[in-house]
Amino acid sequence: MREEQEIEIDLLEIFYYLRAKLGWLILAFVLGGVLAGSITYFLITPKYTATAKIYMVSASSESVLNLSDLNLGTSLSQDYEELIKLRPVFNEVIDNLKLEYEYEELLEMVTVAKVGDTRLLAVAVEDPDPKEAQVIANELANVAVTYIPKVMETSTPNIAEYAVLPQKKSSPSLAKNAIIGAVLFLVLLTAVYIIRMLKDDTVKSADEVEKAFGVMPLTVIPEGNIKEISDGAEREKKKRKKGRENKNEKNDRKGRQ
Description:
This protein is α+β, with helices and mostly antiparallel strands. 62% of the residues lie in helices and 10% in strands. It has three domains: 2-43 and 172-199, no CATH class; 48-161, Alpha-Beta Plaits; 224-256. A hairpin with a 5-residue loop joins β2 (110-114) and β3 (120-127). It is elongated, with a radius of gyration of 39 Å.
């Protein structure tokens, strides 16, 4: 119980200490948000994302879609994702569009993922140029629906939706980065204050003496300017006092005369 009480007192002291520094903490929060927001707005190139969607199942016969086709599309969704990322698919896209990217560079721009619990596969391309993102996403979908059946010897998947020209940037998020920067600056300054407080082991009051040693101090020296109680200051006071006494004596003599 005693240890728990001491921990509560320590936390309370930290709370009051940080409350006294509230102005600086608020300033750090604001500066962090402004700095992170400025870096995001002026220094980071915005990127746009275009997404094409492929339906991963088609009828095994010319017009009939049966249960085995649906099950096949569901079970092979991960295979479809990896097949689209293969080097031959990307190299064909690069050749068709005459892109200056290498395979690894283009792969970093592309995300292939299943859409929820559906049989749709989203092929997303992130690029600083929105038009280029749209063209690459659509070409990648076209190449994928012709390449996958050759490898898997299954029915041909269909393009459910071509990518449209993105109108808004997908990254970076100005608001998100500003909040992260503000919180980061606040946490850092708070940590600095707490560390300084915990390392400060000087005794500043009678309460701290009682807490540290378990005894009450017999006397307390009041705060003041040490220069005011030095020997030189005392001699100066006596000199001024003596001068006032001599002046009073002279005034008294003049008055009697």
